[in-house]
Amino acid sequence: MKAFLKKWMQYFWFAFFFSLFINTLQLVFPVYMLLIYDKVLVSRSLPTLLTVTVGAVLALSVMACLDFLRSRLLVRAGVAVDRTLTQPVITEMVRDAARIDSNSYREGILDINTLRNFLAGNAVFSFFDLPWVPIYIFAIYCMNAWLGWLALGGACVLLVLGLAQEFLTGERFTTAKTMERRSGQLVSLGLRNAEVITGMNMLPGLIKHWLRSQEQALWLQTNAYRFSSLFHSLSKSFRSGMQVFVYGVGAYLVLENETSAGVMIAASVIVRQALNPVEQIMGAWKQSVETRAAYKRLQQLLEKAQTRKPMELPEPKGRLEVEGLGLALAGRPILGNVTFALAPGESMGLIGPSGAGKSSLCRLLLGIWQGTAGKVRLDGADILSWDSDILGRHIGYLPQDVELFAGTVAENIARMGEVEPDKVVEAATLAGVHETILRLHQGYDSQVGDLGAQLSGGQQQLVGLARVFYGTPRLVILDEPNSSLDERGERALVQALSELKAKEVTTIMVTHKPSLLATMDKILLLKDGQVAMFGPRDEIFQALKPVPATNA
After folding, report:
1. What stretches in the chain show pLDDT beneath 50?
2. pTM of the model
3. Distance (Å, rounded) from C-alpha 357 to C-alpha 292?
4. Nearest to 526 by CA among 338, 247, 343
5. Which end of the chain has a smaller Cβ tally under 10 Å, C or N?
């Protein structure tokens, strides 16, 4: 995050530079009032009045232009923040969601919007004006020491109110926002599983859970708003009261011939300007707290990103070596001492009972998860040392639950990148879905809808397979690829596996379908996270044949 801050600092330095002149010109009006009361009215000089009035108008016009430029500059800073952070934040959010230790952080884009809106809003100006508070107070002190001490006392009181507001509301706002995020995630999860919830009448229970979480968030937020409103009202009233005190003390000093009426008026105007940034910050305290929390969340997310770019390796050929691979979740072993090797172009069927760790092994082989022991090597290099942007072009992965993205069929097959028609058609043909796509209303340009809602389960599975085959994959991993396929789809899958073999693509497939396993070169049997058997297909099949019963 510090690297990004350096890129944005130019905007903040220019904004601070403009603030320097804006706040200096803020003194024009009180000086104008001082001159009117102490010079013009005393001398009754019309030329003096005209001169100071024209000068004040010109100065205030310059201040308005500078204020406009500062606003435009901070809007551009907000846009720069958005453009700079969006790609790395989305990238790291996706990687974090795929990690085994994911913290389920999904609000990165909302947090970027929070930063951008804060920079483009009025609250940020108060932070640039805040350093001028002591300068304004010193200006009052130069006019009259008693009025200066009075202004300093008022600023200290507002500072205490601000610290008290932070102490009583900061944590409440942060916690309430966290609970609101959790409530939103619960609703999003419900929408994704609407069919199950409706079919099994789970909605009342889901709403009860959501209301419980939302009520806690509302309670915390209501308490935070109560204190925030109280302190904002106190600060607003106190600032108005300070002007009364300055007028009162100033009038007394005028009566005692300790100062002039012009100083009294000017000091009252300056004290209002001095305390204005503090009051505005207290009024926008919730937004400030949320912006600070958003910045911390983004900082924590981006700190997980790799600080060095992995060494660029040549295009893989598909030699896969697994050495003593292990995985544990929450102290519970999932996989242990998994070891095997596949030459380029070899295929392996991964079998085993439910819960044996087959899907977990697939994620480890792809580098999506990081094992707690052992190594996965592709062409001799640790799978985690590959640049994911480069490696991804040579990997094909079909998870158990195939999910498509909102867009066209062609875009989904092209992995949401630039669509190359020849490669898209080639992949679709290999997956046996080309003719099916052509029968859609707009063919390859047909929209699949959110999560592929416009396609049937079998069509989604085949489009997912086409996505696996797109480009030049050298390692393909298929997790239950036939789960939604009919007989015709399975025949197409068998044909595709044969073509992958001809192209020397290393293939691993999780399945228990004999017709699909018959196309594999090797079989690995996983039991309780351990390799129970591994070897050539026919040998494993022979070993797994039931022993015929003998008559005594």
Report:
1. 308, 549-552
2. 0.65
3. 41
4. 338
5. C
Contact predicate 271/151, CB 8 Å: yes
Spatial CA neighbour of 349 closest among 515, 474, 547, 529 = 515
Maximal C-alpha separation, the chain: 134
Q: What is the dihedral of CA 529, 535, 536, 540, to 10 degrees?
A: -70
Nearest to 91 by CA among 304, 386, 408: 304
Q: What is the pLDDT of residue 99?
A: 65
**In the block, which residue shows the tokens 């022991």?**
373
Measured CA to CA in angstroms, residue 51 lies from 30, 39, 45, 419 at distances of: 16, 12, 10, 69
Q: Cα(72)–Cα(69) distance, rounded to whole angstroms?
A: 5
Q: Which of 287, 161, 296 is nearest to 232 (CA)?
A: 161
Span 82-303 CATH architecture: Up-down Bundle (1.20)
Query: For 351-404, how does the pLDDT look when each residue is reduced to its tens digit (9 = 90+)?
Result: 988 888 898 899 899 888 888 888 999 988 888 888 777 788 888 999 888 888
Amino acid 552: pLDDT: 41
Compute the distance between CA of residue 523 and CA of residue 447 in angstroms, rounded to an integer: 39
CA atoms within 13 A on the CB side of 527: 4
User: Could you tell me which of 359, 353, 366 has the C-alpha nearest to residue 329?
Assistant: 359
Are β-strands 530-536 and 522-527 bridged in parallel, bridged antiparallel, or unpaired? antiparallel
Q: Which of 121, 123, 124, 126 is nearest to 278 (CA)?
A: 126
Q: Measured at the alpha carbon of residue 160, what is the angle toward residues 147 and 21, in degrees to the nearest 5?
A: 60
The Cα 461–Cα 399 span in angstroms is 10
Torsion of CA 383, 388, 390, 396, to 10 degrees: 80
* Alpha-carbon gap, residue 211 to 206, rounded angstroms: 9
Q: Hey, what CATH topology would domain 320-544 get? A: Rossmann fold (3.40.50)
Question: H/E/C letters for each residue in 264-329?
Answer: HHHHHHHHHHHHHHHHHHHHCHHHHHHHHHHHHHHHHHHHCCCCCCCCCCCCCCCCEEEEEEEEEE
Domain extent listing, the chain: 82-303, 320-544
DSSP assignment, residue 260? Answer: -
N residues, the chain? 552
d(CA 381, CA 377): 5
Point out which residues pair with 322 in neighbouring strands.
Answer: 340, 376
Nearest to 394 by CA among 343, 495, 470, 342: 470
Q: What angle do CA 96, 102, 107 make, to 5 degrees?
A: 65
Distance CA 308, CA 427 (A): 34
- Here the tokens at position 507 are 């293939």
